[in-house]
Each structure stands twice: as structure tokens, then as C-alpha cells.
């Protein structure tokens, strides 16, 4: 029995959904600890494809407990849509629970997210537009509305009118748009809350009980290390801590109970949204990776920017998450490339950096220093044995292992559940 954290080691979309689905097989409880419906996690089971934004990817195993922790910001409309999608596809929600102290994304959060991106113009972050940043802002500014506040109609009305006193000032006086009405929001949200209500509870008690009973708990990260508000490419980040530390504050589960931290990383890198990306390939190779890897966002449909694997980034992720192992996904996408490049450092104003710089203007000015590696022509899709991989593919994996100093224990050889090598 081991409690494990899974985090993205890059800019998100590393394949966390697929790896969670794989590792959740042996877990009893699967927990989301941060982010919101900015996430989009894909799980493919047979001919069925599930795209999950809020509910943990473990929901496909109906006997397991699935929890949304307090670190998540919750859009009730998005949640209800996802719950209905799952129920229509025969997935039970009987063992699904949501923290009562999770903050709620309100219509003004979505509106402010868009208005602020418009105001920034060319300097925009490239957010998902789901209201994530404004919801976390209100949480920290101590004017948020929590799920528990919405369960009682009168209390919800009081909290909402207090919140609107402030939010409408912003909307009208700063952004020059129409104020929102409490009654209209109440009417819409009441419908969602009535559907969600029976799943809302103090989830710290559930986790504590699971821990005492020796159950295996799996924490499913969203986003990625470089989108972390502290350790990412600030300000081009999300507004939460998707790194491993976010588990403790985002669920109320203490650090001593954690046995392993798995970092999911693609065999190359992608990014959606704005911000520096040293190994980005704005050329035919980048286009090839995008098409072969189907690199289009699950949440917004935006094309993902693609680039070569970056060693300083993986070292940074290993460090700030305390990663104990890696899952390397999408190795199959690299098949057929004559030459592979790996970034081993950066050149900045005549200096060579071995470590990932945390200041974004410096990062923007960094030129990657590459090492070249041989590619392979063999199709590796669906391979399940490490020994069956071409020698060049094994050399690529072992190079990454050596550079990072942690083992690559899982290797993705295709999008489907069984297309994976476990070492
Ligand atoms: P997440 O946000 O980290 O869960 O990742 P996404 O679901 O947004 O994006 C990952 C995409 O890669 C999805 O379309 C997955 O089905 C797909 N995928 C995951 N692992 C592999 C793999 O090993 N090979 C290939 N070809 N696709 C993969
Ligand atoms: P998963 O869990 C990729 C990015 C957005 C934008 C920045 C801020 O699927 O890996 P936000 O809406 O959070 O304020 O946007 O963060 N972003 C993601 N990129 N995968 C995600 O989640 C992301 N969640 C947020 O594109 O650049
Ligand atoms: Mg995703």
C-alpha cells in the first residue's frame, strides 16, 4: 500500500489522465487537489474516450472513492455537465465526493477572466477563460464563496449579495460593463447545487478514515509544474499550486503519509497559452509533432505549441516536486524522426545555464543548447515490453533518466489504456 501523488512535469497535458487511469487500478481513493475545469484529462478505454475536467480520472472504476479536494475551484455548471455526461455513459457517481470548503466559480469570475485578458491585449496570459484566476484571487482576498455557503439558500443569498457589492463595482466602474443580479445567479446556481448537494461533505474525514484503514490514496494533479504560480513561468501560469506541495493544502492530507511522487512528462514538450518556451519549434518539425501527437487542447481546442525535450525543465520539476519517478508519455509520437534533439542547457548573453531560470525575461532571452540523438524508424505503438523498443528509443529514455537522476518507470506507447510499458 502506497499513497502516491501524480503531477505534470511540464506545461500541462502530459498525459496525466491516462497515467492516473493506469495507476488508479490498485488505488482505493483518487483525489483531485487543485485547479478547476481549466484541466482536460483524456482517458481512452476500448473504443470509448472520456474527457474529464473536474472529476478525478479514477471515476471510471466505480468501486473506488473519487474526491474533489478543497484546493479545487469548482464551477457548478461545468461539474453538473460532467456528472450528466458520465451518468449517460453508465458511470456511477455513488462514490463521488466534493469538499464542502472548495471555492465556487461564479459567473463574474468567468466574465472578469475574459475582460482582463481583453484589457491586457497582446500581453494576455492566454487563459482558458474559465474564471480560474479570478476565483483563486477572491479566495486569497477572503471574499470567495465556498460550496458550503451555497447549501443554505439564505446564507447563499447573503454571501452573494456581499460579493456582488464588490464585484459589480469592478464590472461597472473599471470595465464599464453591466452589473450582475443576485437573483438571476441564485436561480441558475440553485439548480446545480440541488444536483451536487448529496456529494458535498467534509472530505478530510474521508481521507483520514482511508489512511487509518490502510487504503491506497492516489492524488491526481492537474496542470503542470511550469504552470505553478510559484515554480512556473510567472506570470504566464495558472493561479494555483499544481506541484506536489499543493496536495497537503488542497486536501488536508499530511505530507508524512505520502510515499511516492510521480512526474508525468511527454517525450517532447507542449504548451498552450502565451509565455516563454525555449525549445519551441515554429517549423515543420513542430507541425509534425502537433499532427502526429494530436496536440490540440481538450478544454479550449487551441493548437498546442510543440518543442524538443528540455533537461533543465525536468530537473526543475524533479527538484520542486521531489519526484521519485517519471512517466514518459507519447514516445510513439517520436517514431520516424531521423534526428532527435534534447536541450541540455541555455545560452544567455554569452553565459551557459544548466538550470531553468525562474525570471521570465531571462528565460525569454535563453537560446537552447542541444545535444543530438539518433531517432528510430520502427513503429512502437502499443509495445508493452521495454526490451522490444528500438535501441535508439531505449538510449533516449536512459539519457533522460541519467540526466534527471530518477527512474522512468512508465512509458507511453499510444493513447489507449493498454499501450504502455511498465518497468
Ligand atoms: P492531461 O491533461 O495531462 O491528462 O493530458 P491530455 O489528456 O490533455 O493530453 C494528452 C493527450 O495525449 C491525450 O489525447 C491522450 O489520449 C494522449 N496520450 C497520452 N499518453 C499517450 C501516449 O503514450 N501516446 C500517444 N500517442 N498519446 C498519448
Ligand atoms: P491539464 O490538467 C495545459 C494554462 C492555460 C494558460 C494558463 C493560465 O489538462 O494539464 P488559467 O485558465 O488556468 O488561468 O490559464 O494555464 N493551463 C493549462 N495548459 N493544460 C492544463 O491543464 C492547463 N490548465 C491551465 O492555457 O496558459
Ligand atoms: Mg489536458
CATH architecture call of the largest domain: Alpha-Beta Complex
Which CATH C-level class of the largest domain is it?
Alpha Beta
Taken as a percent bin, the fraction of beta residues is 15-25%
Spatial arrangement of strands, main beta sheet: 9-7-5-2-10-1-11-15-19-20
Largest sheet: 10 strands, mixed
Q: How does this structure look, described?
A:
- The chain is α/β, with parallel strands linked by helices.
- It folds into three domains: about 160 residues, Adenylosuccinate Synthetase, Chain A, domain 1; about 90 residues, Adenylosuccinate Synthetase, subunit A, domain 2, CATH 1.10.300.10; about 160 residues, Adenylosuccinate Synthetase, Chain A, domain 3.
- Helix content is about 35%, strand content about 20%.
- The longest helix has 22 residues.
- The protein is globular and about 65 Å long.
- The two termini are about 20 Å apart.
- Bound molecules: guanosine-5'-diphosphate, 6-O-phosphoryl inosine monophosphate and magnesium ion.
- The site of 6-O-phosphoryl inosine monophosphate has 23 residues, from helix 4.
Amino acid at each position: 500500500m502506497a499513497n502516491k501523488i501524480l503531477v505534470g512535469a511540464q506545461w500541462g497535458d502530459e498525459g496525466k489522465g491516462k497515467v492516473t487511469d493506469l495507476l488508479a487500478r490498485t488505488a482505493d481513493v483518487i483525489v483531485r487537489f487543485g485547479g478547476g475545469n481549466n484541466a482536460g484529462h483524456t482517458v481512452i478505454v476500448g473504443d470509448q474516450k472520456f474527457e474529464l475536467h473536474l472529476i478525478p480520472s479514477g471515476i471510471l472504476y466505480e468501486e473506488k472513492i473519487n474526491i474533489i479536494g478543497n484546493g479545487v475551484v469548482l464551477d457548478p455548471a461545468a461539474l453538473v455537465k460532467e456528472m450528466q455526461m458520465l451518468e449517460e455513459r453508465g458511470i456511477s457517481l455513488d462514490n463521488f465526493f466534493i469538499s464542502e470548503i472548495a471555492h465556487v466559480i461564479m459567473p463574474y469570475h468567468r466574465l472578469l477572466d475574459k475582460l482582463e485578458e481583453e484589457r491586457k491585449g497582446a500581453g494576455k496570459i492566454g487563459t482558458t477563460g474559465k474564471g480560474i484566476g479570478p476565483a483563486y484571487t477572491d479566495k486569497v482576498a477572503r471574499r470567495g464563496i465556498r460550496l458550503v455557503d451555497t447549501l443554505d439558500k439564505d446564507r447563499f443569498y447573503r454571501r452573494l449579495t456581499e460579493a456582488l457589492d464588490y464585484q459589480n463595482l469592478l464590472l461597472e466602474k473599471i470595465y464599464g460593463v453591466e452589473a450582475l443580479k443576485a437573483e438571476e445567479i441564485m436561480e441558475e446556481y440553485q439548480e446545480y447545487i440541488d444536483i451536487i448537494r448529496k456529494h458535498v461533505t467534509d472530505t478530510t474525514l474521508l481521507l483520514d478514515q482511508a489512511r487509518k484503514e490502510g487504503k491506497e490514496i492516489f492524488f491526481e494533479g492537474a496542470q503542470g509544474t511550469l504552470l505553478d504560480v510559484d515554480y512556473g513561468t510567472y506570470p504566464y501560469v495558472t493561479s494555483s499550486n499544481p506541484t506536489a506541495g499543493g496536495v497537503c493544502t488542497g486536501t488536508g492530507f499530511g505530507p508524512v503519509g505520502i510515499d511516492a511522487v510521480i512526474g508525468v512528462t511527454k517525450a517532447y514538450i507542449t504548451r498552450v497559452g502565451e509565455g516563454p518556451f525555449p525549445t519551441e519549434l515554429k517549423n515543420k518539425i513542430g507541425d509534425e509533432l502537433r499532427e502526429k501527437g494530436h496536440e490540440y487542447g481538450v478544454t479550449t481546442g487551441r493548437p498546442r505549441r510543440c518543442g524538443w525535450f528540455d533537461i533543465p525543465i525536468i530537473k526543475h520539476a524533479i527538484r520542486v516536486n521531489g519526484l521519485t519517478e517519471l512517466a514518459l508519455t507519447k514516445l510513439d509520437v517520436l517514431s520516424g524522426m531521423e534526428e532527435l534533439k534534447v536541450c541540455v542547457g541555455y545560452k544567455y548573453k554569452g553565459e551557459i545555464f544548466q538550470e531553468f531560470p525562474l525570471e521570465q525575461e531571462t528565460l525569454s532571452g535563453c537560446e537552447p543548447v542541444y545535444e543530438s540523438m539518433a531517432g528510430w524508424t520502427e513503429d512502437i505503438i502499443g509495445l508493452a515490453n521495454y526490451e522490444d523498443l528500438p535501441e535508439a528509443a531505449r538510449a533516449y529514455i536512459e539519457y533522460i533518466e541519467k540526466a534527471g537522476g530518477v527512474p522512468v518507470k512508465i512509458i507511453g506507447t499510444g493513447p489507449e489504456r493498454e499501450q504502455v510499458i511498465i518497468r
